[in-house]
Design brief:
The structure holds 2 protein chains of 2 kinds.
Chain A: H1 5-31, E1 54-56, E2 62-64, E3 72-78, H2 85-100, E4 107-113, H3 121-129, E5 136-138, H4 142-151, E6 156-161, E7 164-170, E8 173-176, E9 182-186, H5 191-205
Helix pairs in contact in A: 2-5
Chain B: H1 2-15, E1 22-23, E2 27-35, E3 43-52, E4 58-64, E5 68-79, E6 82-87, E7 91-93, E8 98-100, E9 107-113, E10 122-129, E11 135-142
Parallel strand pairs in B: 2-11
Antiparallel strand pairs in B: 1-2, 2-3, 3-8, 3-9, 4-7, 4-10, 5-6, 5-9, 10-11
Classes of the chains: A alpha/beta, B mainly beta.
Chain lengths: 206, 155
């Protein structure tokens, strides 16, 4: 026996509502997934990226998060023995700075190595200069680097390759505000045009 | 007239990297390009496109350059925001297929550079295949952070 139209409509409405809820839940779950280390559990659901760190800059000076307070940070973790991915991202950062023009003065781009064994301050200085003088490379003791990576939820692992090794690492780029707090992240596939547009809008609002 | 001839010659030269550079068998090598090595880096990277116009499958099994101790075929696997670079033994080239080596994907890693790769120079790169004869191409070197050959556009 066919159901009355009103019941049918209500059932349809309920199904649509249930489906919408499911999709919203799925979207939320995806959004809240940490962009980096899958091993780090998040229980609060809020982004806890960034915080205190202590590293060593290209001149061998100890720097902390407080060193750069007042500047927007564009932060990327990589290593110099990375022929493909890191140069692409550092090239994108350089092109982003160029696109931002004078606004770029408010930004401190940082390249943090996940390979402190090989990436000394001098190695980093020569490396970052090949992309843009404004990019500062940071290294440290293995413990300092591991702590900074953890603070920024960056995953990295040393992987043997023949008699050499390479590093697996998170590809995310972070934009931190002048107060040191997390603002947003960019994917390495965004490219400089989208990144510059987003950063310019944020700089102009603040 | 003379000026126009020069202009024509300049344009022809500028267009060179986009025309097939080497074609000895069924595999054509197009758009080879490399990046300047950064700082004291003793490694570099080169990219190109391989087109199999033949009717038989082949494989890229190796590469070499007089400018590096060795050249390895690498690829990237990006999952959950983590990039993993891995060596590849060979790249299958099926008939009719175009295989693109590009940033973030397949690339040729030059390991143990004899001297830094500098923007503006050209380096020789020899590709070895399972079946057809080896092919040597001249690879123009672009900026360290280039996303493509310099006659294209950086993003």
């Amino acid at each position: 026996m066919p159901l009355p139209e009103a019941v049918m409509n209500r059932r349809l409405a309920l199904s649509v509502a249930a489906l919408a809820l499911m999709l919203a839940g799925l979207a939320l779950a995806l959004l809240q997934r940490p962009p980096a280390d899958p091993a780090i559990e998040t229980t609060t659901g809020t982004a806890q990226i960034g915080g205190p760190f202590e590293l060593v800059d290209e001149d061998g000076r100890t720097v902390t998060d407080a060193t750069y307070r007042g500047k927007w940070l564009l932060l990327f973790f990589g290593f110099t023995h990375c022929p493909d991915f890191c140069p692409t991202t550092l090239g994108d950062i350089a092109r982003t700075l160029d696109r931002l023009g004078d606004r770029a003065e408010r930004i401190q781009p940082l390249f943090v190595t996940v390979d402190p064994e090989r990436d000394t301050p001098a190695v980093l200085a020569a490396y970052t200069a090949a992309f843009d003088d404004r990019i500062v490379g940071l290294t440290g003791t293995p413990a300092q680097v591991a702590a900074a990576a953890s603070t920024f939820r960056i995953y990295f692992a040393k992987v043997a390759q023949g008699d050499d090794y390479t590093m697996d690492h998170s590809t995310v780029l972070y934009l931190m505000g002048p107060d040191g707090r997390f603002v947003t992240h960019f994917s390495s596939t965004n490219g400089s045009e989208a990144m510059a547009r987003d950063i310019a809008e944020r700089l102009d609002r603040n | 007239m003379r000026r126009r001839t020069l202009l024509f010659a300049a344009l022809t030269l500028a267009a060179l990297p986009s025309v097939p550079l080497a074609e000895t068998g069924a595999i054509t090598v197009e758009r080879p390009w490399a990046r300047a090595s950064a700082g004291a880096a003793d490694h570099g990277v080169a990219y190109l496109t391989l087109i199999n116009d033949g009717s038989d499958s082949d494989k890229l099994v190796g590469a070499a350059s007089p400018r590096a101790d060795r050249v390895e075929i690498h690829t990237h696997d990006v999952a959950d925001g983590v990039v993993r670079m891995r060596r590849v033994a060979a790249v299958a080239l099926t008939p009719g297929a175009t295989t693109v080596f590009e940033p973030g994907a397949l690339h040729l890693m030059l390991i143990g550079l004899t001297r830094p790769l500098q923007q503006g120079e050209r380096i020789a790169l020899t590709l070895t295949f399972e079946h057809q004869d080896a092919v040597t191409v001249e690879v123009p070197v672009g900026p360290a952070g280039a996303r493509g050959p310099q006659h294209g556009h950086d993003s």
